[in-house]
TrEMBL record:
Residues 167-195 have a biased composition (Low complexity). The keyword Lipid biosynthesis does not apply. Gene3D superfamilies: 2.60.120.1440. The lineage of its organism: Bacteria, Pseudomonadati, Pseudomonadota, Alphaproteobacteria, Rhodobacterales. This is FecR protein. InterPro entries: FecR. Residues 56-148 form the FecR protein domain. It comes from Roseovarius aestuarii. The keyword Signal applies.
Length: 254
């Protein structure tokens, strides 16, 4: 891919010693190895200052945390990625990721200063917390905070917090949508809204309306009307129906 090849070429321009801006290995879990040339690998220990353009790989249970000032990069298990900083300012970071998962927390600046390149896409940020996962078939970018621009040769998309974008081996641009965790929370709120709306609406409207209207109306109307009319009427002699008409009228008349 032309875009990715260009960015990888930039990676080699970055590959010069920059000690003042080097990333420091803060914590190592299980097997983590480093290589300068991609051929010779050595175990990594906490406290190591990574040479610029170093490749890091983690084993099945490996994990490593890199820090630089208040920024951090976490390599999860089964990850292979190189990290480099620019030769001019030392402030721009490029991560070239071949597989696995990398979580980045980078300081917000006015210009884009951190990029992650995979075989399928490039993610560029000014400052955010986001994770990039790579398999042979697809790369995925999940954004926790901030904004990430995800692109390849076929298109570009802006990915905001709570969303994700992915791109695969086909001739298509990145596709974006809600991240798995954010989607669940959103649908949960929507479900509560429907429950209260339909539940209370139909319950109070249909239940109380029909219940009081038809129940009390028919009950009192037909029940009391027919009961007192026919019962008392026939029993007392047209009773209270003609009761207050003929009953009281004839009663007082007599």
């Amino acid at each position: 891919m032309r875009l990715l090849n260009a960015l990888i070429a930039v990676f080699f321009l970055f590959a010069v010693p920059v000690h003042a801006s080097s990333w420091l290995v803060q914590k190592v879990s299980n097997v983590v190895e480093v290589s300068i040339d991609g051929r010779t690998w050595n175990r990594v220990t906490a406290g190591t200052e990574l040479p610029n353009a170093s490749w890091l790989r983690t084993g099945p249970r490996g994990r490593v945390i890199l820090t630089r000032n208040d920024e951090s990069i976490v390599y999860r298990a089964n990850t292979l990625a190189a990290i480099s900083v620019s030769q001019k300012s030392g402030r721009k970071t490029l991560v070239t990721q071949q597989r696995g998962s990398v979580l980045l927390s980078v300081r917000k600046r006015r210009t884009q200063h951190t990029s992650v390149v995979t075989p399928h896409l490039a993610a560029v940020v000014k400052g955010t917390v986001f994770e990039v996962s790579v398999t042979p078939q697809v790369s995925n970018v999940r954004v926790d905070t901030g904004l990430v621009t995800v692109s390849n040769d076929h298109g570009s998309v802006a990915v905001y917090a709570g969303n994700q974008a992915s791109a695969g081996t086909g001739a298509q641009g990145p596709s974006a949508g809600a991240a798995a965790g954010a989607s669940g929370a959103g649908q949960g709120s929507s479900a509560s809204g429907n429950s209260n709306g339909n539940g209370n609406g139909n319950g109070n409207g249909g239940g109380n309306g029909n219940g009081n209207g038809n129940g009390n109306g028919n009950g009192n109307g037909n029940g009391n009307g027919n009961g007192n009319g026919n019962g008392n009427g026939n029993g007392n002699g047209n009773g209270n129906g003609n009761g207050n008409g003929n009953g009281n009228g004839n009663g007082n008349g007599r």
